[in-house]
Amino acid sequence: MSTFRDREKEKYTNPEFKKALFSKDACARGTYKGHEYDFCLADAHSAENLHQSLRDEAIEYFSSRNIQWHDGKDSRMLPSNHLCCSQSCCVNFLFPMQSNHKLLANVFKAIYPELGTPLPMVEGDISATGGHPYLSFEWIGLIDYLAETRRKPGRRTRGANHTSADFAFRFRRTDGQTQIVLGEWKYTEYYGHEDKGTNQVRLDNYAEAFGRSPGVFTRKDPALYRSLFFEPFYQLMRLQLLAQEMETKHEMGANLVTVLHVHPAANKEFTERVTSEYLSASFPGQGVMSIWKQLVDQTRFTTISVEHLLQLIGKARSLASPAWVDYLQTRYTFADHIQPKEGDAP
Q: In the chain, where do the E strands start and end?
């Protein structure tokens, strides 16, 4: 039976579905890692992976900050042409909230009832027009909190070689405190059992932050730490530790820095497949998000589905571009889950 990723790729191979979203020229087969696929846009039209209302501004945002697009075209300065790209999915959903703080507040207040007033990201993210966005992409923090330049010397880059939040936003809470949210976004991902902890430098890199007391992790034992070096737990650990260190240093006046994980509920291969043998044995029958909630301070972690977020955006339609909302509802409405099978896919 097919995986969620299989079904999403199959959706994009439907000529009628593709024509409803993209230009005629873009609908030609595209090249991805040396092979042509129907579920990719034509190479010269990868920019159409982003909705037209935000396309130019989003590309400029990434370019002006030297943020590379994952598997991007034209030296990674343009989005990937793979239509199952999670980075493009994230930008399609959230980029309008950069400047539309009323939309951001309306949507995310349903997730954070304590959200009072959105605040701009006032340091490190000046827009092309000189203002500050209310939501940032590929956020790595203002300094190297996790000392990752020890392992990857040189200039820090957003979105590559350093722990990056797919998105981040900041707000004044109703209790007067300032909160920053670091977001992780998933689309069609699922992972094997690759051990990321075979590199001793990598193991050493996050040990100090993991063991900090008080800290975000409710358990500090070495066996647990070692078990987190399997995706997606490895990504979650690093992002949770980045949030912890940003909070400790009160980045941009933050009293609280939390993590928000967004993923399709329909992607059971991601939510149910536990890649760490230690965690699988310690939490039998439980999925990734359930396990994670038991490992960290629950006030510092929240998870929602893409489906839920899409519903919230639909309810806020009057605050946004109707064409953008229609696009999201057409492109990112997922088929019912079918029992998965093992297998690799690009």
A: 30-32, 35-37, 115-119, 135-139, 165-173, 178-185, 256-263, 301-305
The neighbour count for residue 118, using CB atoms within 10 Å, is 20
Q: How far apart are CA 134 and CA 119, in angstroms?
A: 6
Q: What is the pLDDT of residues 257-310, one digit of tens each?
A: 999 999 999 999 999 999 999 999 999 999 999 999 999 999 999 999 999 999
Task: Give the closest residue to 101 by CA, choosing from 76, 77, 130, 132.
Answer: 132
Sign of the C-alpha dihedral computed for residues 75, 76, 77 and 78 taken in this order: positive
pTM exceeding the 0.90 threshold for the entire prediction: yes
Domain that holds residue 156: 4-331
Residue 150 confidence (pLDDT) above 80: no
Query: Which of the 8 DSSP states describes residue 243?
Result: H
Residue 232: asked if its preceding bond is cis (omega within 30°), the reply is yes
Per the structure, the count of domains in the chain is: 1
9 domain residue, yes or no: yes
Mean pLDDT of the chain: 92
Residue identified by tokens 């941009």 is: 252
Calculate the alpha carbon distances from 81 to 46, 62, 71, 119 in Å.
4, 16, 8, 33
- Widest Cα–Cα separation across the chain: 57
Residue 346 lies in a domain: no
